[in-house]
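Consider the following input, taken from an annotated entry for MauE/DoxX family redox-associated membrane protein (Luteipulveratus flavus).
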Amino acid sequence: MTVAAPPRSDARDWVGLVARLLLGGVLLVAGLLKITALGTSRTATRAYDLMPVDVANFIGTLLPMLEIVLGVLLIAGLLTRGAALLGGLLMLAFIGGITSAWARGLTIDCGCFGGGGSVGENQTKYLQEILRDAGLALCAAWLVVRPQSRWSLDRRWWG
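Applying the prediction step yields:
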């Protein structure tokens, strides 16, 4: 009788865990901070001046809910590849929006963790925000390519 060896764990599983918890944690915190102040979330979305007001308001209302759902899925390690893909696309959209605001000379807070809207010129943090979101997009890319990680429901339920 042959006994199957337990799945081997390697460093990539730990990298996946860190990427999952980092991206998921940031999305969850961002969504929770915005869900309690949807008016401010809509103001932040409108401040980018990239879409009609009604569309910006809709996105400002929907975005916190999407971030919470993706954050919970990633932290739990459930549907990891799909959640990471959507999370990565969000990060790329955020990078595009922040870059656009910076290039057009807007002085706004990104609204990533609540708040948002106009700020003083010396209060913008565009480069830091772009670098943060780029790092999170890299976490998402890792998880899209290699969604397996330690302590995930995906691994527990589907192997």
